[in-house]
Amino acid sequence: MKISIFENSESLGEAAGKATANAIRDAIFKKGYANIILATGTSQFETIRQLIREPGIDWGKVSMFHLDEYIGLPESHPASFRKYLKERFIRKVAPLKAAYLINGETDPMQECKRLGELIRQHPIDLALVGIGENGHLAFNDPPADFDTNEAYIIANLDLKCREQQMNEGWFTTLHEVPARAISMSIKQILQSDRIICSVPDQRKARAVKNSLEGPINAETPASMLQQHADCVFYLDTNSASLMENVV
């Protein structure tokens, strides 16, 4: 586990985006292709913005999965993660070799099965993730299931998670926030060769401290990242403000 702290979200995102680009180039150089996971949400704005600026990436050799999607939310909704990725990433780097998006408008059990079969055929070189205000990783809200071997699961979203989505402006009322989502599981995320975790903002400070300095436990799902052999945390001074073991 490595921690890098930056002055603000812009410099954090620039560094994380450059590191992501280097990892993709490295995988393509070594194998001829790269399989990646992209996160969504406000924490990823700057990282993805920098990534699409990076030169020398043959996107036609890159296959992309994403972490999670609300169940029952139309793709046309502003909070749809499919919409987010298509507008902010896919259309700007196209054509990708493949983009495996989660369809939250179909049968969720069958969608989990479909995606699980696909990702098992595409070992992941690099995953981009964030940490939620409740310590969640993807939509694995506390208490998270650390034991499931399923690649994708149906997740029940807790109140704090749903409040975060509303407060970030994706929904106008709490009632509008779906109560369930399809999420990549903790075990599947940890199978990625490399993980880059971008977490800006003061409101994430407690979750960051608990995830990086606290014990590994299901009440802080992102704490499992401590066990990964090649996970780098990109924080800003606000999100790192409660940590004791960094300068």
Structure, described:
By secondary structure, the chain is α/β, with parallel strands linked by helices. It is built from seven helices and ten strands. The chain has a single domain (2-236), classed as Rossmann fold, CATH 3.40.50.1360. The strands form two sheets. Strands 1-10-9-6-2-3-5 form a seven-stranded parallel sheet, sandwiched between helices. The model has no long low-confidence stretch (mean pLDDT 96).
**What number of domains?**
1
Strand content: 15-25%
**Low-pLDDT runs:** none
Q: Which whole number gives the mean pLDDT? A: 96
Question: What Rg do the Cα atoms give?
Answer: 17 Å
CATH names the topology as Rossmann fold
The CATH architecture can be named as: 3-Layer(aba) Sandwich
The total count of helices amounts to: 7
Order of helices and strands: EHEHEEHEHEEHEHEHE
Helix content: 25-40%
The oligomeric state is: single chain
Major beta sheet summary: 7 strands, parallel
Q: Which descriptor suits the 3D outline?
A: globular
User: Termini distance?
Assistant: 16 Å
Q: List the strand order in the largest sheet.
A: 1-10-9-6-2-3-5
The CATH class is Alpha Beta
Number of strands: 10
Structural class: alpha/beta
